[in-house]
Amino acid sequence: MTQDTPHLVVVGAGFGGLELVARLAGAPLRITIIDQRNHHLFQPLLYQVATTSLATSEIAWPIRHLVHRRKDVVTLLGAVVGVDAVERKVLLEDGGAVDFDFLALATGARHAYFGHDEWEPFAPGLKTLEDATDIRRRILLAFEHAERESDAERRAALLTFVIIGAGPTGVELAGTIVELAHETIRDDFRHFDPRATRVVLIEAGQRILPGFAEDLALYAHRALERLGVEIELGRAVSQCSADGVLFGETTLAAKTILWAAGVQASAAAQWLAAPTDRAGRILVAPDLSVPGHDNIFALGDTVSIAAPDGRPVPGIAPAAKQQGTYVAAIIRARLAGAPSPGPFRYRHAGSLATIGKRAAIIDFGWIKLRGRIAWWMWGVAHIYFLIGLRNRLSVAMSWLWIYLSGQRSARLITQGPEEERR
Amino acid sequence: MTQDTPHLVVVGAGFGGLELVARLAGAPLRITIIDQRNHHLFQPLLYQVATTSLATSEIAWPIRHLVHRRKDVVTLLGAVVGVDAVERKVLLEDGGAVDFDFLALATGARHAYFGHDEWEPFAPGLKTLEDATDIRRRILLAFEHAERESDAERRAALLTFVIIGAGPTGVELAGTIVELAHETIRDDFRHFDPRATRVVLIEAGQRILPGFAEDLALYAHRALERLGVEIELGRAVSQCSADGVLFGETTLAAKTILWAAGVQASAAAQWLAAPTDRAGRILVAPDLSVPGHDNIFALGDTVSIAAPDGRPVPGIAPAAKQQGTYVAAIIRARLAGAPSPGPFRYRHAGSLATIGKRAAIIDFGWIKLRGRIAWWMWGVAHIYFLIGLRNRLSVAMSWLWIYLSGQRSARLITQGPEEERR
Description:
By secondary structure, chain A is α/β, with parallel strands linked by helices.
């Protein structure tokens, strides 16, 4: 392999980027991975870090270690701020530049506030490990402050947790927080009863889990209510502050608000002035190339593309991985001078969501599962998809412990400004 | 138990404070624990978090959960800023106050720079979980930056790690960092060889580990050198900056400097205008009461007191626990109207330090152990002293994994300002 070997730059080491790199093992390529974090994050379990069930290191791995056996791969920690498509250079924040022959943009998404960015300080979203430890700190501090609050009304606001948005993340956060309050910390306080904690899930639509079949969503709705979650449908939140939320005509006093309502793609489209949908996702060609740039591909949460059934490909890990596999095949064909494979076709394997630690729903399309058996399948599947035996063992043990004892082991208030930790 | 029941306030839930509370189970007392953190920290293993071997949640537990079965104990998260000894009130930062009949100050210590506080940004010390994740970030970022550095001299500075102070913490940091560089990340980089990493342990005194017998310290010295640590004795550091250190006439270019050279007691002495030693530790009476306040006790790193052999009681967990046990006995005697036990007498059980993952030294006084057998004893002892089966299992698994594979699972760069993470 020499400097003349074609060079692929992959920006972003999420599910899509890493799958692409894995599928190119042995190809006549040099590969550089650039990410602004040193770790790949298993986002499907991030809500478990935010709710004290898992430690940060159980769902994150150093990117460079994941590819340490691949001598054809260089990993760089750095923030990309632009692409020079003419000169074929990726531009880095620190002024550096990296040449490419092929470029793959797998830069993911952030949460979005639909024009209300001023809500972010009051209603943090969940995309990074820092988001998760921030949310964990807020949840735990609310209980700590409640223990010292003598005013009943203020204490009630401290013990009210609002989750905005009832997709899988909102549902999973709500189910876990109510279990944390009603079970894990049940005996830990002296001045209030944690079972008085209210968890309110607010959804603007007419039902929770719009991506799931209606009967499954209804089952999840009832299961959440049985756990103790209050569900408010059909009214959008129109105000968020340090004191609570306004939805419809209802004001709800709540000191902790979590945002699970919407995402916005990263800035990748702007680097190439590419056409996007409303969420900033690149409207890619059928072969996942960026229009006008046949050597630049985009994948995962960065792109907007339709599935064969006409519905949008969902922003989930299996979709990103399929796109990584597909782009690898395109690049291999190009390198070999072979004809390109046909257009990308998404195959939906299924949708999953958990409700607390005893129930889940799985929608495979051809079969629907729910309840305890679905929860076990969900657990086994997630342990299987974790990277490395070490993490599988560790997460399995953490879950077994929670399952048997109700105790969660990562109840740490850390990493805020000094005055925010107490 | 009524409001007339005497009230003990314990400030600080470290080893001393928690032992005191544990030993007072069943006593006719109300107890309030106040700590500015929500977690008790197992400080002897903090260096393992700083060096990516353990996750934060493996060595920290929510204080209130540790005492959740004790209905006589209230736990408050809060920062104490003063004591009104006449009115018998503990004053909190947020303006609150807590009445007491008995008060125990177990507020610990911070690292100290001997009049050079301006060194702190360049040479962080290790006392809290945040310190540990900060040091972890610095160590991992140095390697990341080295991967992108083309200038040989600057790269060498990035790959030079200086540890100032060769007590147990300095020795343990040095041994683990050199293993991390030479073993764990050996195959992870493409533009430099991690085995070129230099770890330099600088000690002003004439030998490392002054608290240990000379032959054991000499063994540790040789074991560290075999691992690859460079040891510099007899010259104090006189300058610290972002570029490196000056010790004696030697300038050493180093981008990562860690401080393990000295501690300063917390502000507790100032709250009572109590007499202190040079490190700010209260010169307590033989019964650990603060002079002039027979209902106020101090323990752990907050106090300065001599052992029966005339040497100072060391600032280690067993000493703090013995003091907790002793103060509990004093308070029980007072409550019962019985005569006080005699003065506090420290019994030194032994000193331990590890050198990397295969050797340790243990100085019991009557017997001295070193090498692999000492390392296993150290490991078993620390797992035994961890709190709770869950953490024992988890840490045992983490260590077994490191021992067998050399891989460390908490290699995360997190929690710095956004621009510092890359």
